[in-house]
Design brief:
By secondary structure, the protein is an alpha/beta fold. Helix content is 44%, strand content 13%. Strands 2-1-3-4-5-6 form a 6-stranded parallel β-sheet, with helices on both faces. Strands 9-8-7-10-11-12 form a 6-stranded parallel β-sheet, with helices on both faces. Strand 1, helix 1 and strand 2 form a beta-alpha-beta unit. Helix 1 packs across helix 16.
Protein backbone atom coordinates (compact mmCIF):
# COMPACT_ATOMS: atom_id res chain seq x y z
CA UNK A 1 0.00 0.00 0.00
CA UNK A 2 1.43 3.35 -1.06
CA UNK A 3 1.62 5.85 1.77
CA UNK A 4 0.35 9.31 0.89
CA UNK A 5 3.08 11.93 1.11
CA UNK A 6 2.97 14.09 4.18
CA UNK A 7 1.92 17.66 3.51
CA UNK A 8 4.88 19.99 3.52
CA UNK A 9 4.77 23.37 5.15
CA UNK A 10 4.53 26.21 2.64
CA UNK A 11 7.67 28.26 2.07
CA UNK A 12 7.76 31.52 3.98
CA UNK A 13 6.07 34.39 2.20
CA UNK A 14 8.48 36.73 0.47
CA UNK A 15 8.54 40.06 2.28
CA UNK A 16 9.31 43.52 0.96
CA UNK A 17 11.65 45.69 3.04
CA UNK A 18 12.25 49.33 2.12
CA UNK A 19 15.53 51.01 3.14
CA UNK A 20 15.12 54.79 3.16
CA UNK A 21 18.24 56.88 2.49
CA UNK A 22 19.47 60.02 0.78
CA UNK A 23 22.78 61.03 -0.76
CA UNK A 24 23.65 64.07 1.37
CA UNK A 25 27.11 63.33 2.74
CA UNK A 26 27.18 59.83 1.24
CA UNK A 27 27.15 57.98 4.57
CA UNK A 28 23.42 57.25 4.58
CA UNK A 29 23.54 55.68 1.13
CA UNK A 30 26.67 53.71 2.10
CA UNK A 31 24.84 52.34 5.15
CA UNK A 32 21.81 51.40 3.06
CA UNK A 33 24.01 49.56 0.55
CA UNK A 34 25.89 47.79 3.35
CA UNK A 35 22.62 46.68 4.92
CA UNK A 36 21.20 45.55 1.58
CA UNK A 37 24.32 43.44 0.97
CA UNK A 38 24.13 41.97 4.50
CA UNK A 39 20.49 40.92 4.01
CA UNK A 40 21.37 39.34 0.66
CA UNK A 41 24.30 37.51 2.26
CA UNK A 42 21.98 36.01 4.89
CA UNK A 43 19.64 34.77 2.11
CA UNK A 44 16.57 36.14 3.84
CA UNK A 45 13.37 35.74 1.79
CA UNK A 46 13.01 39.47 1.35
CA UNK A 47 12.79 41.82 -1.57
CA UNK A 48 14.90 44.82 -0.53
CA UNK A 49 14.20 48.19 -2.14
CA UNK A 50 16.38 51.27 -1.77
CA UNK A 51 14.17 54.35 -1.43
CA UNK A 52 15.79 57.76 -1.96
CA UNK A 53 13.61 60.09 0.09
CA UNK A 54 14.41 63.08 -2.10
CA UNK A 55 12.97 61.27 -5.14
CA UNK A 56 9.79 60.47 -3.21
CA UNK A 57 9.29 64.04 -1.99
CA UNK A 58 10.40 65.69 -5.24
CA UNK A 59 9.44 63.21 -7.98
CA UNK A 60 9.48 65.87 -10.71
CA UNK A 61 13.02 66.92 -9.77
CA UNK A 62 11.81 70.50 -9.37
CA UNK A 63 14.78 71.67 -7.29
CA UNK A 64 17.31 70.57 -9.90
CA UNK A 65 15.27 72.04 -12.76
CA UNK A 66 15.04 75.35 -10.91
CA UNK A 67 18.65 75.60 -9.74
CA UNK A 68 20.55 73.27 -12.07
CA UNK A 69 21.80 71.25 -9.08
CA UNK A 70 20.63 68.35 -6.95
CA UNK A 71 20.13 69.36 -3.28
CA UNK A 72 22.48 66.57 -2.22
CA UNK A 73 25.14 67.96 -4.58
CA UNK A 74 24.85 71.40 -2.96
CA UNK A 75 25.44 69.85 0.47
CA UNK A 76 28.31 67.66 -0.72
CA UNK A 77 30.06 70.59 -2.40
CA UNK A 78 29.85 72.56 0.82
CA UNK A 79 31.53 69.69 2.64
CA UNK A 80 34.27 69.44 0.02
CA UNK A 81 34.99 73.18 0.23
CA UNK A 82 34.80 73.32 4.00
CA UNK A 83 31.80 75.68 4.06
CA UNK A 84 30.41 74.16 7.24
CA UNK A 85 30.52 77.07 9.69
CA UNK A 86 26.96 77.93 10.72
CA UNK A 87 25.51 74.52 9.90
CA UNK A 88 24.42 74.07 13.52
CA UNK A 89 22.12 77.09 13.17
CA UNK A 90 21.02 75.99 9.69
CA UNK A 91 20.12 72.58 11.10
CA UNK A 92 17.76 74.19 13.61
CA UNK A 93 16.13 76.13 10.77
CA UNK A 94 15.85 72.94 8.70
CA UNK A 95 14.22 71.07 11.58
CA UNK A 96 11.74 73.92 12.06
CA UNK A 97 10.86 73.86 8.34
CA UNK A 98 10.36 70.09 8.45
CA UNK A 99 8.02 70.44 11.45
CA UNK A 100 6.07 73.18 9.65
CA UNK A 101 5.83 71.09 6.46
CA UNK A 102 5.01 67.82 8.25
CA UNK A 103 1.31 67.61 7.22
CA UNK A 104 2.29 67.93 3.56
CA UNK A 105 5.20 65.50 3.93
CA UNK A 106 2.97 62.93 5.62
CA UNK A 107 0.38 63.13 2.83
CA UNK A 108 3.04 62.65 0.16
CA UNK A 109 4.57 59.73 1.99
CA UNK A 110 1.19 58.09 2.66
CA UNK A 111 0.50 57.96 -1.07
CA UNK A 112 3.94 56.43 -1.66
CA UNK A 113 3.43 53.67 0.91
CA UNK A 114 -0.09 52.93 -0.35
CA UNK A 115 1.28 52.53 -3.85
CA UNK A 116 4.32 50.41 -2.92
CA UNK A 117 3.04 48.34 0.07
CA UNK A 118 6.23 47.43 1.96
CA UNK A 119 6.13 44.91 4.82
CA UNK A 120 8.72 46.88 6.80
CA UNK A 121 10.23 50.34 6.46
CA UNK A 122 13.78 50.97 7.69
CA UNK A 123 15.05 54.55 7.90
CA UNK A 124 18.76 55.29 7.70
CA UNK A 125 18.27 59.06 7.69
CA UNK A 126 17.82 61.74 10.37
CA UNK A 127 15.38 64.65 10.78
CA UNK A 128 12.48 63.15 8.80
CA UNK A 129 11.65 60.26 11.12
CA UNK A 130 8.51 61.80 12.63
CA UNK A 131 6.92 62.36 9.22
CA UNK A 132 8.12 58.98 7.96
CA UNK A 133 6.85 57.08 11.00
CA UNK A 134 3.46 58.82 11.06
CA UNK A 135 2.95 58.22 7.36
CA UNK A 136 3.71 54.49 7.66
CA UNK A 137 1.49 54.10 10.74
CA UNK A 138 -1.47 55.84 9.09
CA UNK A 139 -1.13 54.34 5.59
CA UNK A 140 -0.09 50.80 6.60
CA UNK A 141 -1.29 50.11 10.16
CA UNK A 142 0.83 47.44 11.81
CA UNK A 143 3.73 47.60 9.35
CA UNK A 144 6.88 47.98 11.50
CA UNK A 145 8.95 51.15 11.22
CA UNK A 146 12.62 51.04 12.24
CA UNK A 147 15.19 53.82 12.58
CA UNK A 148 18.80 52.66 12.30
CA UNK A 149 21.01 55.41 13.74
CA UNK A 150 24.03 55.89 11.49
CA UNK A 151 25.55 58.22 14.09
CA UNK A 152 26.80 57.14 17.50
CA UNK A 153 24.25 59.31 19.32
CA UNK A 154 21.17 61.46 18.81
CA UNK A 155 23.06 64.72 18.62
CA UNK A 156 21.81 67.40 18.42
CA UNK A 157 18.45 66.45 20.02
CA UNK A 158 15.68 65.26 17.69
CA UNK A 159 18.21 64.53 14.97
CA UNK A 160 17.39 60.81 15.12
CA UNK A 161 15.05 60.13 18.06
CA UNK A 162 11.54 61.55 18.35
CA UNK A 163 9.32 60.87 21.35
CA UNK A 164 6.01 59.04 21.33
CA UNK A 165 6.21 57.11 18.09
CA UNK A 166 5.24 53.51 17.31
CA UNK A 167 8.64 52.38 16.14
CA UNK A 168 11.89 50.54 16.81
CA UNK A 169 15.44 51.88 17.10
CA UNK A 170 18.77 50.23 16.31
CA UNK A 171 21.48 51.96 18.37
CA UNK A 172 25.21 51.53 17.82
CA UNK A 173 26.36 52.85 21.20
CA UNK A 174 25.32 52.72 24.84
CA UNK A 175 24.79 56.48 24.69
CA UNK A 176 22.18 56.09 21.95
CA UNK A 177 20.47 53.28 23.88
CA UNK A 178 20.21 55.53 26.93
CA UNK A 179 18.82 58.36 24.80
CA UNK A 180 16.10 56.11 23.38
CA UNK A 181 15.15 54.99 26.89
CA UNK A 182 15.07 58.60 28.07
CA UNK A 183 12.68 59.36 25.21
CA UNK A 184 10.24 56.85 26.72
CA UNK A 185 10.82 53.75 24.57
CA UNK A 186 10.58 50.30 26.14
CA UNK A 187 13.56 47.97 25.94
CA UNK A 188 11.79 45.70 23.42
CA UNK A 189 11.75 48.66 21.01
CA UNK A 190 15.48 49.40 21.45
CA UNK A 191 17.96 47.09 19.74
CA UNK A 192 21.65 47.52 20.51
CA UNK A 193 24.26 46.79 17.86
CA UNK A 194 27.99 46.68 18.49
CA UNK A 195 28.76 49.79 16.44
CA UNK A 196 28.17 51.52 13.13
CA UNK A 197 27.57 49.54 9.97
CA UNK A 198 30.60 49.38 7.71
CA UNK A 199 31.03 47.53 4.44
CA UNK A 200 31.82 43.82 4.59
CA UNK A 201 35.03 44.55 2.65
CA UNK A 202 36.52 45.76 5.93
CA UNK A 203 35.97 42.27 7.39
CA UNK A 204 37.27 40.43 4.32
CA UNK A 205 40.75 41.95 4.19
CA UNK A 206 43.64 39.55 3.64
CA UNK A 207 46.99 39.87 5.44
CA UNK A 208 49.38 42.16 3.56
CA UNK A 209 53.13 42.53 3.59
CA UNK A 210 52.95 46.16 4.67
CA UNK A 211 56.62 46.93 4.05
CA UNK A 212 56.67 45.38 0.59
CA UNK A 213 53.43 47.10 -0.45
CA UNK A 214 54.61 50.48 0.78
CA UNK A 215 57.84 50.09 -1.16
CA UNK A 216 55.96 49.08 -4.30
CA UNK A 217 53.88 52.28 -4.04
CA UNK A 218 56.93 54.51 -3.58
CA UNK A 219 56.61 54.86 0.20
CA UNK A 220 59.26 54.31 2.85
CA UNK A 221 58.54 50.94 4.53
CA UNK A 222 59.95 52.13 7.87
CA UNK A 223 58.30 55.53 8.27
CA UNK A 224 55.12 55.94 10.35
CA UNK A 225 52.36 56.53 7.81
CA UNK A 226 49.13 58.45 8.12
CA UNK A 227 46.03 57.99 5.98
CA UNK A 228 44.22 61.30 5.40
CA UNK A 229 40.58 60.79 4.42
CA UNK A 230 37.60 63.18 4.32
CA UNK A 231 34.89 61.14 2.62
CA UNK A 232 34.12 60.56 -1.03
CA UNK A 233 34.44 64.24 -2.00
CA UNK A 234 37.62 65.02 -0.06
CA UNK A 235 38.05 68.41 1.61
CA UNK A 236 40.25 71.45 1.15
CA UNK A 237 41.29 70.89 4.78
CA UNK A 238 43.55 68.16 3.38
CA UNK A 239 45.72 70.84 1.77
CA UNK A 240 46.33 72.50 5.12
CA UNK A 241 47.12 69.18 6.76
CA UNK A 242 49.60 68.23 4.03
CA UNK A 243 51.33 71.62 4.21
CA UNK A 244 51.70 71.33 8.00
CA UNK A 245 53.13 67.80 7.81
CA UNK A 246 55.95 68.04 5.23
CA UNK A 247 58.03 65.46 7.12
CA UNK A 248 55.24 62.93 7.68
CA UNK A 249 54.63 60.12 5.22
CA UNK A 250 51.00 60.37 4.08
CA UNK A 251 48.47 58.53 1.96
CA UNK A 252 45.95 61.19 0.89
CA UNK A 253 42.62 59.85 -0.38
CA UNK A 254 40.78 62.54 -2.35
CA UNK A 255 37.77 60.57 -3.57
CA UNK A 256 36.11 62.14 -6.60
CA UNK A 257 37.85 65.51 -6.07
CA UNK A 258 40.38 65.53 -8.91
CA UNK A 259 41.20 69.22 -8.44
CA UNK A 260 42.20 68.51 -4.84
CA UNK A 261 44.32 65.53 -5.90
CA UNK A 262 46.16 67.69 -8.45
CA UNK A 263 46.82 70.43 -5.87
CA UNK A 264 48.14 67.89 -3.35
CA UNK A 265 50.48 66.32 -5.89
CA UNK A 266 51.94 69.77 -6.56
CA UNK A 267 52.83 70.45 -2.92
CA UNK A 268 56.50 70.17 -1.91
CA UNK A 269 57.24 67.58 0.77
CA UNK A 270 60.28 66.10 2.49
CA UNK A 271 58.62 62.71 3.04
CA UNK A 272 57.11 60.35 0.46
CA UNK A 273 53.45 60.87 -0.37
CA UNK A 274 50.80 58.83 -2.17
CA UNK A 275 47.84 60.83 -3.51
CA UNK A 276 44.80 58.76 -4.47
CA UNK A 277 41.78 59.61 -6.57
CA UNK A 278 38.58 57.67 -6.08
CA UNK A 279 39.19 54.09 -4.97
CA UNK A 280 36.74 51.45 -3.76
CA UNK A 281 39.60 49.73 -1.92
CA UNK A 282 39.95 52.07 1.06
CA UNK A 283 40.39 49.06 3.36
CA UNK A 284 43.61 48.06 1.57
CA UNK A 285 45.16 51.51 1.99
CA UNK A 286 44.13 51.57 5.64
CA UNK A 287 46.11 48.36 6.04
CA UNK A 288 49.18 50.18 4.75
CA UNK A 289 48.84 53.04 7.27
CA UNK A 290 49.61 53.36 10.98
CA UNK A 291 47.06 56.04 11.88
CA UNK A 292 44.12 57.97 10.46
CA UNK A 293 43.58 61.75 10.07
CA UNK A 294 40.17 63.07 9.12
CA UNK A 295 36.84 64.46 10.22
CA UNK A 296 34.90 62.65 12.97
CA UNK A 297 32.46 60.99 10.60
CA UNK A 298 30.92 57.83 12.09
CA UNK A 299 31.67 55.70 9.04
CA UNK A 300 35.30 56.58 8.38
CA UNK A 301 36.21 56.58 12.09
CA UNK A 302 34.53 53.17 12.54
CA UNK A 303 36.35 51.79 9.50
CA UNK A 304 39.72 53.03 10.76
CA UNK A 305 39.16 51.69 14.27
CA UNK A 306 38.04 48.30 12.91
CA UNK A 307 41.36 48.01 11.06
CA UNK A 308 43.21 49.09 14.23
CA UNK A 309 44.19 52.57 13.11
CA UNK A 310 44.24 55.12 15.94
CA UNK A 311 42.57 58.33 14.79
CA UNK A 312 43.25 62.06 14.85
CA UNK A 313 40.14 64.16 14.30
CA UNK A 314 39.33 67.85 14.56
CA UNK A 315 36.25 69.07 16.41
CA UNK A 316 35.34 72.76 16.53
CA UNK A 317 32.63 75.17 15.40
CA UNK A 318 33.18 74.10 11.78
CA UNK A 319 32.47 70.44 12.60
CA UNK A 320 29.08 69.12 11.51
CA UNK A 321 26.79 69.18 14.57
CA UNK A 322 25.85 65.51 14.22
CA UNK A 323 29.52 64.47 14.19
CA UNK A 324 30.58 66.24 17.38
CA UNK A 325 29.64 63.39 19.73
CA UNK A 326 31.83 61.06 17.65
CA UNK A 327 34.86 63.09 18.72
CA UNK A 328 33.80 62.69 22.33
CA UNK A 329 33.49 58.92 21.76
CA UNK A 330 37.06 58.82 20.43
CA UNK A 331 38.27 60.50 23.63
CA UNK A 332 36.17 58.29 25.92
CA UNK A 333 37.40 55.07 24.29
CA UNK A 334 41.04 56.22 24.10
CA UNK A 335 41.09 55.58 20.35
CA UNK A 336 43.13 58.62 19.39
CA UNK A 337 43.35 62.38 19.76
CA UNK A 338 40.89 65.21 19.17
CA UNK A 339 42.26 68.59 18.07
CA UNK A 340 40.50 71.93 18.32
CA UNK A 341 42.01 73.10 15.02
CA UNK A 342 43.99 71.76 12.07
CA UNK A 343 46.96 73.85 13.23
CA UNK A 344 47.30 71.43 16.14
CA UNK A 345 47.41 68.29 14.00
CA UNK A 346 51.24 68.17 13.77
CA UNK A 347 51.53 68.08 17.56
CA UNK A 348 48.88 65.37 17.72
CA UNK A 349 50.78 63.29 15.16
CA UNK A 350 53.95 63.50 17.25
CA UNK A 351 52.08 62.50 20.41
CA UNK A 352 50.23 59.65 18.72
CA UNK A 353 53.33 58.19 17.09
CA UNK A 354 55.22 58.27 20.40
CA UNK A 355 52.52 56.13 22.02
CA UNK A 356 51.17 54.31 18.97
CA UNK A 357 50.96 50.85 20.54
CA UNK A 358 48.80 52.05 23.43
CA UNK A 359 46.31 53.67 21.08
CA UNK A 360 46.38 50.66 18.79
CA UNK A 361 45.61 48.39 21.74
CA UNK A 362 42.52 50.50 22.46
CA UNK A 363 41.25 49.98 18.89
CA UNK A 364 41.64 46.22 19.33
CA UNK A 365 39.11 46.31 22.18
CA UNK A 366 36.36 47.61 19.87
CA UNK A 367 34.58 44.63 18.30
CA UNK A 368 32.14 46.03 15.77
CA UNK A 369 29.95 43.38 14.07
CA UNK A 370 26.96 45.63 13.40
CA UNK A 371 26.58 44.87 9.69
CA UNK A 372 26.22 41.17 10.54
CA UNK A 373 23.88 41.84 13.47
CA UNK A 374 21.37 44.02 11.62
CA UNK A 375 19.68 41.34 9.47
CA UNK A 376 18.86 39.24 12.55
CA UNK A 377 17.59 42.31 14.42
CA UNK A 378 15.30 43.24 11.53
CA UNK A 379 14.17 39.63 11.15
CA UNK A 380 13.19 39.60 14.82
CA UNK A 381 11.24 42.86 14.47
CA UNK A 382 9.37 41.49 11.46
CA UNK A 383 8.61 38.23 13.31
CA UNK A 384 7.28 40.22 16.28
CA UNK A 385 5.03 42.14 13.88
CA UNK A 386 3.76 38.85 12.43
CA UNK A 387 2.95 37.47 15.88
CA UNK A 388 1.00 40.64 16.55
CA UNK A 389 -1.12 39.91 13.51
CA UNK A 390 0.09 42.79 11.34
CA UNK A 391 2.35 41.06 8.86
CA UNK A 392 2.17 38.10 6.50
CA UNK A 393 -1.33 38.85 5.27
CA UNK A 394 -2.61 38.08 1.78
CA UNK A 395 -2.63 41.13 -0.47
CA UNK A 396 -6.41 41.53 -0.19
CA UNK A 397 -6.04 41.76 3.59
CA UNK A 398 -2.81 43.78 3.60
CA UNK A 399 -3.12 47.00 5.65
CA UNK A 400 -2.43 48.95 2.46
CA UNK A 401 -5.46 47.42 0.76
CA UNK A 402 -7.74 48.43 3.63
CA UNK A 403 -6.17 51.89 3.85
CA UNK A 404 -6.57 52.43 0.10
CA UNK A 405 -10.24 51.48 0.35
CA UNK A 406 -10.69 54.13 3.04
CA UNK A 407 -8.93 56.68 0.83
CA UNK A 408 -11.12 55.71 -2.16
CA UNK A 409 -14.25 56.13 -0.04
Amino acid sequence: MTRAPLPSSPPPARRTVDLVYFDAGGGHRASALALEAAIRRERLPWTVRLVNLREVLDPKDSFRKLTGMDPEDVYNRRLARGWTLGLAHELKVLQAVIRWAKPTLVRQLQQHWLATEPDMVVSLIPNFNRALCESVASALPGVPYVTVLTDLADYPPHFWIEKGQDQHFVCGSERAVQQARAAGYADERIHASSGMMIRSAFYETQPVDQAAERERLGLDPKRPTGLVLFGGQGSKAMLGIAKRLPDTQLILACGHNEALAKALRALPARAPRLVLGFTPDVARYMQLADFFIGKPGPGSVSEAVHLHLPVIVVCNSWTLPQERYNAQWVREQGLGLVCSSYAKVPGAVEELVRDLERYRAATCKVRNRAVFELPAILEGILALSDRSGAGGLPSALHPAHEARQKVDL
